[in-house]
Amino acid sequence: MTAMATLTRHAPDNADHRVVEWVDTLARLTQPDSIVWCDGSADERQRMLDESVAAGTLIKLDEQKRPNSYLARSHPSDVARVEARTFICSEREDDAGPTNNWAAPAEMRETLSGLFDRCMRGRTMYVVPFSMGPVGSPLARLGVQVTDSPYVVLSTGTMTRMGADALAQIGPDTEWVPAVHSVGAPLASGEEDVVWPCNETKYIVHYPETREIWSYGSAYGGNAILAKKGFALRIASKIGEDEGWLAAHMLLIRATNPEGRTFHVAAGFPSACGKTNFAMLRPSIPGWTVETIGDDIAWMAPGPDGRLRAINPEAGFFGVAPGTGHSTNPTAIATIEGDTIFTNVALTDDGDVWWEGLTDDPPAHLIDWQGRDWTPESDSPAAHPNARFTVSAGLCPTIADTWDDPAGVPIDAIVFGGRRATNVPLVAQARDWEHGVYLGATLASERTAAAEGTLGELRRDPFAMLPFSGTHMADHWRHWLNVGEKLNQTGAAPLIFQVNWFRRGENGRFLWPGFSENSRALAWMTERLEGRTDAAESPFGLVPVDGAIDYASAGVSDEDWNALFAIDPEALSAEADDTDVFLARMGTKVPDAVMRQHAAFRSQL
Ligand code: OXD
Ligand code: MN
What we know:
The chain has 16 helices and 32 strands. It has 605 residues and is an alpha+beta fold. Bound molecules: oxalic acid and manganese (II) ion.
C-alpha cells in the first residue's frame, strides 16, 4: 500500500468518490503528514480546542467568567481581509469587471500549483464538509474545504453546518464547491510551530465558472473561512446569476408590530456600518419586537408562491468586537457570554476579554491583542480594531424561531444603507424595483467627514458587494433587474428602501441617535408596506410625510428632523456628477434602466 493510500483510508465509507479523489490529489500536491476527515461532532471539537490550547493558538478564558470560550491572537500581519490579494479568475476579464482584481485562470493555476506544492508538510490536512443553509434545504448548497489550520476548522464549525451530515448530502450528482486553504507555512522535520502560522504571500482566489476557491497565506476571517465571503458571496453571486437567485451581503430580521403582524426585512450595508447592531435591534417603540435571522449574508430566491424567500446560509456570527458594548448592542453581549472564540481582543487580569467600547471605562490593566501589557495610558488600542467574536447564531437571545427554516422566510422589504454625512435622508422608499436597484447600485459611504453643505469623498459600495461580487458589478445589477421583473409578474416584489443613520449637522454632530431609535424608520417601512401612511416625493424617492415618524420621542428636535431630509441642490448636483464618473467607470455593461434612473435623479435637482 502506498503512503497516500494509507492517508485516504480515513475517508468515511459514504464519502463521494469525487470528494475522495479531490482530497487525494490535494494531498499529493501539498503533502501533509496526516489527513483528518471532520465529522462535526462535539467530541471532535473539544479535542481540537484542547489541541489548540496545547499548541498555544488558543488561550482558555476563565471558566466562570466566560465558559467554554477561548482567545486567539493572530500574527500582527494577518488581521483582516486582504482585498488587494483577492482575485476573481473568470475566463474573461470582462466577467470580473472593473471592481475586481482579475487574473487569467491558467496563469493563476500555475502560480498556485507552485505555492501549494508541499505547503502542508509537517501539518495535518483537515477535510471539512459543510452545508450553507439548513442541511437538506432546497436553498442550501454544499462545499468541502481542506485546510491545514485547526483554527479555521473550529471557525468553520461555528459558521456553517459542518461535518458528517453535510458530507452525506453529497452524492454522485450533487454540486459542491471545493475550497482549498493553506496557511502556507510547512514545517521541516523537528521544526517547532508558531502560534499563528501564516505567510507574507497571500492569495485569495475564486474561479467563478468552475465554482472553486483557493486561499493561501492567511488564517484570518474571510481570507480563510472560505464558506463565508468566498463561497456564500463571491461564488454564490455567480451561481445565483446562472440560476436566477440572489446572493446578497445582507442581514435578515423579522419585525413584529403591536398588532402581531410580522415583516421580514433584508438589509445591505457596507462593512462597518452597524450591521450587527441592526440585526439585533432592540426597538425603542413600545409593542414592537425585532428578531434576528442573519447578521451578514442572505440567499434569496423566488419561491413557489412567487415571493422572494430568503435563508441565512451561515450558522454563526463572525462579528466585530470593538464598538460592541452593553449600551450599544446588549443582545450581542448576551450572545457571547460563553461558547465563543475571540480573536485579537484584549485579555483581562482575571481571564476574561475586553475591547474598546465594551464598557465605558477600560480596566486599569490588560494584556493587549499582541500579548503586551496595556494600561489606559497606552497609545495603541487594547483590541485590534478588526478583533472578532465567533459564536453560534443559535446562542443569540433574539434569534427567530424560523431562522433555520429550510423553506426560508418571505421577504417584504429590502433596505440599502451607507454611512453618509450629507445628502442621503434618514429613510426613503424607492419608487419601484428599478429605482431600488439604482439606489443599491449607487450606494456609497463618505470617506471623510464633510464640512456642512459639501460632499465628502464618496466610497462607492454598490449593493454593499464591492469586495464580494464574483461577477462584473454591472452584470450583478442586470441580474437584480431580471429577478425583480420576475417577482413583479406576480406582484410580489418586496419594496426597496434606503436608510442613512449617519447624517451630520454642524460640527460633525450626528443628527439621529441611531441604535434602538432606528426602529422608527423600520416601523415606517412596514406602514408603507401596509399602505397605512402616505409619503412625499423627494429626489431619493418617497419620504415620510409630517407626523409619520415620532422623532420627538427619539429626542430629535424639529430642526434636526428637517436637516435629516434637507435637500441641498448644489451638493446633490456634485453627487450626481460623482455618479456619472462612477457609472462611466463601470463601462458599457451598465443596464439602460440604471442610466435612466440616474437621468431621472438629475432631472429632479
Ligand atoms: C464582514 C465584512 O466581515 O463585511 O462581514 O467585512
Ligand atoms: Mn459582511
